[in-house]
């Protein structure tokens, strides 16, 4: 099959094709992060050309996007995670600094095409785009796709779990590592999503009758509910990887 990658916004695309590509894959609560909402509009506008789509003929089969930021290559200087990457990209832009790093913040493979290696093709295209723009480093705060099966495990431990062949147990981390990426560090507070108990009940589809910690569908960690305050908070852990 002949796959090509191009900027998502290079041409108009049929809405129904995009809806199929982006159908599913994300829990509802992820769309209610107030900190993301502070930055995302400006980020997606300023860096729209860093969104790529992978085409099979004319059909979009995968998409991903990145932000440009400044990072000195040391673990200590990594952004705290997804939200901090948005803030760091805007800070570099506003200060007129030349970004040296491409942070790939999201990737999506068409639901009918997952598990067929398209994710690696998409990541390769994003890395090539970074090189074309003279950015020497490519990093990703990976949302490990099987972490929701182990919401009680600390991300610092989860990121070390490997199969007998030495590759990560987590399939999405495995795709990165198989491409030659290195696991750099855990990002235990990549996103912090707070809402009222009623909001969380609607986002999770679960009654939350008591205060305490809850395992929630597609949560990579648990949800902490405080009934007296009427609020609940979820902290999303990710794993930083660096591509070659
Ligand atoms: C994360 C995502 C982009 C990975 O794409 P992908 O196409 O599944 O990736 P790969 O083809 O590299 O598959 C990775 C591994 O999972 C397995 N896998 C993934 N989906 C599978 C499926 N539906 N059936 C069987 N195996 C599957 C693959 O076989 C592969 O295993 P292997 O390493 O043993 O060969 C994709 O699952 C997705 O779009 N998820 C929804 C959005 C998301 O979570 N994005 C990531 C956060 S940024």
TrEMBL record:
A family per Pfam: Acetyltransf_1
Q: Which residues cross the membrane?
A: none
Gene Ontology molecular-function annotations: acyltransferase activity, transferring groups other than amino-acyl groups
* All residue ranges annotated as the N-acetyltransferase domain in the record: 8-184
This protein's name: N-acetyltransferase domain-containing protein
Q: Which organism is it from?
A: Catellatospora chokoriensis
